[in-house]
Amino acid sequence: MKIGIIGEGAIGRYVREGLHERGHVIGAILVRAERLQERAAESGKTHYVSSVADLPQNIDHMIDCAGHQALKSYGPGILQRGIDLTTVSIGALADPDVYRSLEHAAAEGNSRLYLASGAIGALDCLRAARVGKLLSVTYIGRKPPKGWKGSPAEARLDLDQLESSAVHFEGTARIAATEYPKNANVAAAVALAGLGFDETTVQLIADPDIDQNIHEVQATGDFGRFSFEIRGQSLPDNPRSSALAAMSVVSKLEDATQSICF
Predict the structure, then answer these.
(1) Of 41, 90, 167, 261, which cross-links 188 as Cys (Cβ 3.0–4.6 Å)?
(2) What is the pTM of this model?
(3) CATH: 2.102.10.10, 2.60.40.10, 3.40.50.720, 3.40.1000.10. Which one for 2-115?
(4) pLDDT tens sequence across 15-61
(5) Does the annotation count 68 as an active-site position?
């Protein structure tokens, strides 16, 4: 497949390398206009563009690795062009206007928006459980203090001097995804798989005694109850980015090329 990527951050670089190793061609990289000239001078054979209109006609699939604003800005145009799009910026869908815009664009372009599972598992279990009746879903996100740098946690806790674990957010998944756009995509994924943004409870914790990102999902319903925990490594060059989130993007695209898949 010929793939286009939005963004060149830690996840974008991992995805680019992973897809290249699997034989996919990177046909274009979409960057902000102010970066285009600089990137074009360094690009070699890589085709850089700054707008959806400038994407090559033969792009099979786009991947958003650049965050909420990129999905809001470029997602509708990509889907309207009939190009399928995979995103890790699931928290952007907490904004009802963004959700509707992407949904309408996909219908207009006869395309699909794929949500990469990101840093969490058990979403298939939640999706199955909601066929019956889900009574409660809680997501608990625990990271080392440095993993919360650049988020509202800095105004609520002294992250540099923290000596024991501390909660810096409790509320709905919609508020978490809105206030923590770089940290709470997992909360949004759990919400979309289960009870929705307004009925999913979220707790975010800074813990100086851990060196991994710990994600836990608890749910009860007609199916019974479950508790799922995963301890994930961050990408080496960005403590806010989950390695598994980057891997999930590559995996989601691989699914699109298989005759038999989960």
Answers:
(1) 90
(2) 0.88
(3) 3.40.50.720
(4) 888 888 888 889 999 988 877 777 766 656 678 899 999 999 999 99
(5) no
